[in-house]
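Morning. Coffee machine broken again, so started the prediction first thing and wrote up yesterday's gels while waiting. Chain of 182 residues, entered below exactly as on the submission form.
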Amino acid sequence: MSARLTLADMARDLNRPVVYLMGLQRRFELPVFEGAAYTKAYLAFLRTVVHLRVLGVSEDMLLDLWRTEKHLLQLMHHDNPRSSTWFLDECGKTGHAERRLLLTHHDMGPEFAHRMIQPHLDFDPGANSLFSHKEAGDDEIRVLHRYRKLLVAIQSAADAEAPLLRAALHWLPRLRSARAGD
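Came back before lunch.
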């Protein structure tokens, strides 16, 4: 059994106050647990969000991408009603990064790496609905297009911030030497 974490453990790991993580939980509509009930996948998701924020990606963009990823996963029946964290359970996995969604890390298969998915691909063939997603107005290709558009915007924001971050890191030795001189 894997070790479970508290909110305080995750805050310490991410170098953020607990109240900051509580705000992320609220805004990203994440399940909240008592005590040492958080998984490493949950922490991996929060780490991804914190890292992307450091890279200058706005929280609004991340929220939009988060909702889009969850919507895409639901359309393809990746959701699991037996798990309150089904959208986090793949976070932190690294194999086949080119096939994984940015925030949920769900592996979308080899077609995804080639910018394709099979429309109406159902990862839970036992799920029966009165109407298909297409009849209800949802379309995997439309949602995938939205995902890719958001991903490009996030990549652009991170690329624009990267030179500033690299320049800021050059201050670190100077700050350390100033501290040593005290």
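Residues 57-180 form one domain. Going to sketch it on the whiteboard this afternoon.
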